[in-house]
Amino acid sequence: MNFDAVIHNGTLVTVDDRMRTIENGWIGIHEGVIRAIESTAPDSPPPMAMLTINAVGGIVMPGLVNTHTHLPMTLFRGLADDLPLIEWLDDHIFPAEARFINPETVRWGTLLACAEMLLSGTTCCCGGYFHEDAVARAVAETGLRAVLAQGVIDFPAPGVPDPGKNIDHARNYAQRWKGRSRLITPSIFCHAPYTCSDVTLKAAKAAADDLGLIFQVHVAETLFEREQSIKEKGLSPVAHLDRLGILDRRTLLAHCVWVDEADIATINRRGCAVAHCPESNMKLASGIAPVTGMQSAGVMVSLGTDGCASNNNLDLFGEMGTAAKLHKVATFDPTALNAASVLKMATIDGAHAIGLADHIGSLEIGKQADLVILDTRAPHLTPMYHPESHIVYTAGGADVRHVLVAGRQVVRDRRLLTIGIGEVIDRVNAIAQEIRLSHNVIES
Amino acid sequence: MNFDAVIHNGTLVTVDDRMRTIENGWIGIHEGVIRAIESTAPDSPPPMAMLTINAVGGIVMPGLVNTHTHLPMTLFRGLADDLPLIEWLDDHIFPAEARFINPETVRWGTLLACAEMLLSGTTCCCGGYFHEDAVARAVAETGLRAVLAQGVIDFPAPGVPDPGKNIDHARNYAQRWKGRSRLITPSIFCHAPYTCSDVTLKAAKAAADDLGLIFQVHVAETLFEREQSIKEKGLSPVAHLDRLGILDRRTLLAHCVWVDEADIATINRRGCAVAHCPESNMKLASGIAPVTGMQSAGVMVSLGTDGCASNNNLDLFGEMGTAAKLHKVATFDPTALNAASVLKMATIDGAHAIGLADHIGSLEIGKQADLVILDTRAPHLTPMYHPESHIVYTAGGADVRHVLVAGRQVVRDRRLLTIGIGEVIDRVNAIAQEIRLSHNVIES
């Protein structure tokens, strides 16, 4: 068989159904798809190909799938930390968004986010924001795979000054991007049940359904949200969404921190996936989502970083380590969320959550060649008894050496090949300087 | 003034009493000591010196102080994860220690640990293990500053087959190393109140006091330990140690997860410092230490990684981020452990905890030049509104570019200058191969 690219001399962590690890493995890629996964004797030469990548004994693994983020919010990274949620939103994030979010700033913030994700081993992300046309165009430049949603909220928003047109705006965006790019899938994202009316929620879900797309919504992020929902509607946020008929296999629920057993049963019965964002939930003091309970019930729980204003980075390796440790201490069970299960959350379960499990999320013949090669010859990754343990508990995004998306090498020797990082950093710094000056005025 | 070294063109995060940040700063170093800290116009040339380091706009900060670790346990990194504590210890760690810990393996494991710490910005560590002579000799080779304790336990231990001689062994070690090395301070470490008799605890503390050294002990790590102590002795672990008269300003308490208000009052009254190890406590599902309560009471709480068998790395940047986020969610207070306070825990508070605050822990004139330069020109550190936020919430050990200890450059452009990492990695891998073979036998 002819291969366009061959990766050899690595430990393959496949995340396939049997969670196979293949020592001294090689992978053959043709037309962006994995066509061979085999092990060889250490010294036998790999098959010939246009591109040969030597993993030099490192780990070869599926690219990570970040199922909840807001790409342009890199612009606000670390702008305001250590604050109560309402003060953080009302006094810092919302004013900054109103003043500085436009197609041009969104473009640079998105390029920065994609650079950060690709360099740290994330090959696919899912999320939403405003000016999503600009987001999608920027993502396409970087070679990242993504499910990108236009945000819907019943207030004036960047690019959607009239909330009465928010559904039309989202539908038009989704129609424009459906089938337009091999790597980008459009989606529609309602901000939350407390910021979108029932009419809006149903119309947005219907628009997503019409186009066969994933519908996303933040839900049950804080105790306040839950208590307010129960007080005003007599229903938990999840029960409220269920009553509207918008929970099904194409609905992705972000956060689900404050869900009880009845909510979990509903989520499971409807087949919704959950995007769990442990670091954001910790930093904003929102709470600890009942991940082990959701998983036991059968719910597909994936991992997200959330936006950079609340985390403050997009490193899904760090998110894996945090998730694995957080739920151990939260349940007093050191066997909870073991390394293999967390690795699945960040790969194949994420792929399921966003409807792409037939194409990505594991190293298997017939799947897209979205993969990451870790350099493990470093003090902090020595010795290596169990590759999965290193991926979850020890490695960081900085250990990523090479990255391929759909067979195309986008990171080589820790350098991004698709866009020039220098210009992106300079442009974001210039935008940040304006935000900083404005923010100092707000603070004084 | 003449300087041996000058660092310029950086943002100085001093962690001094006023938590000053100095833009466009420079630092002058003479005979290992900081002699000047000033700001300059961006284009003005720095003073002349033998060594000039350009921080190229990055962050210059005090070296991190890791107050609780067990250096040679790098040998067991990731050997056994996701297990209950007792099974982890009895079936994996203790058998591996009994069989594989000797002066030669301890040497290579320690060199690996020091390489990992220096490369990730830790310039001083405190901890203890067995064969501590070999540990101290290895640490001295690497240029790391350290407080290193011989371990004391009332069981046969590596290098101390007769527990009746454990105090003599520790005292002899401490005497040999007192005043011997400018960078290494000996110490004595009793494993825990449940593995050391009252006689042993008092004798070990007396030996440390005789020599004016820090005494260390694991205490109140698990609920089981607390409940057993109350059942058997009628006292909490902390109250038990207090009754023995061994709590004072030169006693460092590791963990303190299960301490109540009376314990906290005791710790504060006696002036003990605490080494908080959030990631180890999370991974082993031990619990969440009441850090905000201890700090409110006035207790000096520092940060430690614990050994690599339970974490699984020695990156104190990661530990800062975890601590900051964990205690926010544990207290439902997003203002808890803000970035500045966590940075202090990992620097000046750590220096206080190990008795070295007059010499290290901040960038101040007259202190030792133990410092770290971060490369901030990277997507994940862009933009930078608040340097302290980046240090705690965004940066990782991999962002460390240069490191100095006592004015000596030990890391340059991410490469360790003091020892050859390649040989260390190869030797540890060879030891790990033996452990792996033996361990497979145990597992089968």
Brief digest:
Two copies of one chain form a homodimer. Chain A is α/β, with parallel strands linked by helices and 444 residues long.
Total helix count of chain A? 15
Name the quaternary structure. Answer: homodimer
CATH class categorisation of the domain at 3-62 and 363-416 in chain A? Mainly Beta
Question: pLDDT below 50 for ≥5 consecutive residues: which ranges of chain A?
Answer: none
Provide the gyration radius of chain A in Å: 21 Å
Report the structural category of chain A: alpha/beta
Largest interface: A-B, 73 and 73 residues
Ends of chain A: how far apart? 67 Å
CATH architecture of the domain at 3-62 and 363-416 in chain A: Roll
What sort of overall outline of chain A do the alpha carbons produce when their principal axes are compared?
Answer: globular
Helical content band of chain A: 25-40%
**What is the residue-averaged pLDDT of chain A?**
96
The total count of strands of chain A amounts to 17
Per DSSP, what share of the residues of chain A sits in E-state strands of 2 or more residues?
A: 15-25%
Classify the fold: give the CATH topology of the domain at 3-62 and 363-416 in chain A.
Answer: Urease, subunit C, domain 1
Q: Give a short account of the largest sheet of chain A.
A: 9 strands, mixed
CATH superfamily of the domain at 3-62 and 363-416 in chain A: Urease, subunit C, domain 1
